[in-house]
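User: Fold both of these, please.

Assistant: Here is the first one.
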Amino acid sequence: MRGPAAALLVLAVPALAGAQDRLRVGSVSAERGHAASGWLEVPDGADPGTRIPVSVVHGAKPGKVLALVAGTHGYEYTSIVALQRLLPRLDPARMSGSVILVHMANPPTFYGRRIYYGPDGKNLNRVYPGKADGTVSDRIAFLLTREVIDKATHLADLHCGDGNESLRPYSYWQVSGNREVDEASKQLVLAFGLDHIVVDRDRPKDPAASSYTSNTAILRGKPALTAESGGMGLTDEPSVRAQEAGALSLISYLGIMDAPSIRVEHPVWYDRSEVLRAAASGIWQPTAEKMQMVAAGTLVGRVTDPFGKVLQEVRSPFAGEMLYVVGTPPVSEGEPLGFVGHIAESEPRP
């Protein structure tokens, strides 16, 4: 079945999870009105497995099931700290609905202090919905799809700039072509409260090759967002607080529990964006900073060889704002150097 009728069917199914007397994520299980924490076990395969820390807070009354995913990239620390702080603020006795907290989606990259890639050389946020018989990144994505995404009604994938990225806070509104889900995702992004929003219409449309955490939820008919706050391996209070406050605002918006709302009323929308990438491996020397406004053709930085010879001059392809700039010298061919967004003149529509 395809088209709007299929989308409505998919939207209707997840609500059953919020009506169950027991909510289970892997071996972590909570009865209605209770919370539980434990591990989602990723088995050994072609390479060693891992253990993903999760909490299940199952409300006393039925309602929406919000999945909050932290640490998809292990060097992105702000969301991991934010969910630690959020957990004790959730009272299942006062909740109508449930929250699944994935405290650290990618332990191999966290404990290995790895930027972008796991020990298998893969970016977890590019391999969804994963494979049960793949390498560790594939197996993580497979289990998170089955045990978290498929059991949620809504999802927020919480990111920040990786350990090499200096980033301004913003969210992504991903437009899939399913108008009902897209509008619901838009409202979710506004409820999260970050007032700069990238409109992304270019994510994959095939559920069997969804690539990204939030896109996997969206292609299964579940409203979702990706949020970015923090970077450079820091856990500064404003960046962590933005993640925690955004999660609480979603919980309030979905009617799960009374909590402060920080819904944004007048966001800045970016209707076009582009990742600027290295044409060669070398030493990156940025000349622009995050939040800097740039004209078309503005020099953003240079890639040099170890002797100082310029290998590449990187310029903005259009006028806009620098959403992040890589802030450390090492760069490999094909990797990001910065991200620029064009500010929309009017509010985008699905």
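And the second sequence with its predicted structure:
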Amino acid sequence: MCLRRSKERLSVLGLLVASLAGAVLVLLSRVSAAPPATAYQLMDYESGIVVLERNGEERRYPASLTKMLTAVMLMESLPAGAKMKVSERAAKQSGALLGLKPGDTISREEALKAILLESDNDATVAAVETAAASVEDFLKAMNARAEKMGAKDTNFVNPTGIHDPRHFSTTHDMTLIAREALRNPEFASLVRLRTATVKWSSKPQGKTITNRNRMLFDFPGCEGVKTGTTPEAGDCLAAVATRNGWRLLVVVLGAKDALTEAKHLLDQGFAGYKRIQVLKEGKAQAQASVTGGRQATVAVAPQKSFWLVMPKSVNPRLGLRAETVALQAPVKPGQRAGQVTVLVHGKPRLTVPLLTTAAVEVSPWRAAGWLKAPGATVALFLLTYWALVYTRRRESAAQQ
């Protein structure tokens, strides 16, 4: 009897061990099959201050986020109303397509709608081939422009974002590119569109397209920007949104669900952080003395604005230390007149030049500055005395 119970216990124990081992194997298989961790960056749009970041400098595939820079360069290089003829190469692109055929013509404006809303690769290549001598020349200029923006760890080998191991960027670089692109008014207005009608030569009635960026539909205050996805890149998204006057920009690369992650990051930024403007460009911060001018002083203001971004629970002790220099008239607006240092808890955080906000003309009495000398004062007294005496003598002579 005891022997049978022992065997039953061993059997139950064996089943438990086998079940545990199976669970561990399943877990390990899921871990090994999982994609790499998401990279993201949340940035204060106005100042460029990074609020939240994960793997921001890690190289990733940007997919069709590439088209943000492609579109900006097309806007700058193609004249308004330019017509583009679709080549075999453009028509045979893979991925998202508008439906262009070899020999079709499409305008610059129509192609840009297809590029930014529906991420169409045929429209992208057709526009690039028109804008530059070759796609390769366009890419050289594209990489140079990215580097100029500060995107130092980015390399584009095609204008569409179709997968290539040599085509990479980082969330930090893509945030810089998105921020720069949004400064272009045409770009900013297009990425806000939820739907548009695109027309070309073989489809004069037009095709209605819908913006692939679901943030425009699902996240209040969203103003664009761009989506992208490939099997190798994962789900990618750049989005900008404004809430209570504060504008945040987020880029997510390599996600399973970039839309959900972007929403979460923006909510976290708006709810948990605050922005404090410490300096405002052009706003008078101090007075600088002026010698020989119509006014004795002139207002001076910071050369640039400066913000601090921090958790709402933090209340920093802020201070400003302005150091001005004496100026000599004439003074021009924008003339260097010292510097102002931002102090956080008594420690210097940033120093910004101070510039004059107005002009100060030379005083008409400046030429008489020599009157301040002691010898000149005595000479003036004697001259005045002589003039009085001479005047009285003439008056006496006239009465006689």
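The first strand starts at residue 39 and ends at 44.
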